[in-house]
């Protein structure tokens, strides 16, 4: 079947957005894990960091390129809000995700912000495989400091490192994503503190790999930086694709 889609990105974090509001029952059967993996292939398919179905509500369903699902995605929520706002003229929207409702605001300059909600910091909420201090997890690699963990509707572990450029993230990301401490895998963030109001961040995303930006990862990095006393509460997060 032929399915129209829109290609969008937030700071280079790119998405295929499918409007399934009119007939979700017709679109959903065509979007199983195998089909999503085929569409995600950047040489033989379309290519994306996530595929997004816009559903009645409004709501959104999020697929990772490996065919797995994600409960929330900050940059994708901004993109969906931009589409819906352009359609309706609304400046404030609430979009339902599997991780809860997210509020979005469209600004006069064309940018979109999203309220990702309160972080979840308990070890069961992230989740972790066993009771652990989420502010300082056990060392997962001898060459990295112990990370901090938080859930923004999806699990994140943030490593604060002195030199981000010294890390071979494609080499170390997969092992950390699949570490036994994370029963649902995890998004792995590597953050370098540039100042009390500035972080540099790269994220190995669960099911997607190294991306140019990650909205929920940026939120988790700031939450964990604040918890550790490394930054204030308003922070510019500099990612490979732009700033959040």
Describe the structure.
This protein has 244 residues and is an alpha+beta fold. The protein has 2 domains: 6-115, Diaminopimelate Epimerase, Chain A, domain 1, CATH 3.10.310; 148-243, Diaminopimelate Epimerase, Chain A, domain 1 (Roll), CATH 3.10.310.10. The chain has helices spanning 24-27, 33-40, 74-88, 169-177, 215-227; strands spanning 6-10, 13-19, 50-55, 59-63, 69-70, 92-97, 100-106, 112-115, 148-151, 155-160, 187-195, 198-205, 209-211, 236-239, 242-243. A hairpin with a 2-residue loop joins strand 14 and strand 15 (242-243). It is globular. The mean pLDDT is 94.
The rough form would be described as globular
Rounded to the nearest angstrom, the radius of gyration is 18 Å
Low-confidence spans: none
Give the name of the CATH superfamily of the largest domain: Diaminopimelate Epimerase, Chain A, domain 1
Nutshell version of this structure?
The protein is of the alpha+beta class and 244 residues long.
Q: Could you give the topology of this structure?
A:
Layout: E1 6-10, E2 13-19, H1 24-27, H2 33-40, E3 50-55, E4 59-63, E5 69-70, H3 74-88, E6 92-97, E7 100-106, E8 112-115, E9 148-151, E10 155-160, H4 169-177, E11 187-195, E12 198-205, E13 209-211, H5 215-227, E14 236-239, E15 242-243
Parallel strand pairs: 2-3, 10-11, 12-14
Antiparallel strand pairs: 1-2, 3-4, 4-5, 6-7, 7-8, 9-10, 11-12, 12-13, 14-15
